[in-house]
Amino acid sequence: MTTKDTTKPALTDRSRRKREAVLEAAKQEFLTKGFEGTSMDRVAATADVSKRTIYSHFATKETLYEAIVAQLVSRIEAMPHHDYLAGRDLESQLIQIGRAFADTITNPNFFELCRIVISRFMLSPELAQATAKEQMKLRKGCVAWFEAATEDRRLHVADPDRAVAQFYGLIKELVFWPQLINGAPEVSDVERGRVVEDAARLFLSHYRAPSAQKEGT
Fold first, then answer.
1. Among 89, 96, 115, 95, which residue's Cα sits nearest to residue 176?
2. Which domains does the chain show, CATH number per domain?
3. H or E segment to which residue 177 belongs
4. What is the pLDDT of residues 88-113, one digit of tens each?
5. At what angle do helices 61-77 and 125-135 cross, to 10 degrees?
6. What share of the chain is helix, strand, coil (3-state, %, to 5)?
7. Whole-structure pTM value
8. End-to-end CA distance of the chain
9. What percent of the chain has pLDDT over 90?
């Protein structure tokens, strides 16, 4: 008895280009009109494709939106991972971690995706919760770093997840949330670096283990 192969065929280059055109058009529409104000007709017109083409890739407006959320998640997963280095000073390592995070969340593509996704959260708590779980991946590498530094007795961190939220929060408060919520000007690369350095020093002033205090002097 043979089993029917249900694997979907790979997209051709032409089909892939059309799919990307639909996603880009959907982003524009969701940004300007919101989820409820966006129609598949408008997306088709903006992408210059037929509705049949859209539905061949995305069964509903919800699945189209979910594909955009998936792009946001992929940006999160692509953030560099930093291993803990026992022989290197804590501050320089933490600044490197913070800079990678700051560069990720202020990247124009990531920022645009956040604007689209967050606008939907109030109307869809389920989507917000699911996306929040995916965003926890942004913390995974940093949590492991904090755990390793604590095991090495250079940090004193009882709750690594909480500590990462605090460290990243110091950065987001100045380079992400004001720009996303209030339309504040984008922070320059130099200023972003200063924000990260200040966050690292403030964090270490609280969490550096007593036995490692000489590192900060």
1. 115
2. 15-59 (1.10.10.60), 78-216 (1.10.357.10)
3. helix 177-181
4. 999 999 999 999 999 999 998 888 88
5. 20
6. 75, 0, 25
7. 0.82
8. 73
9. 61
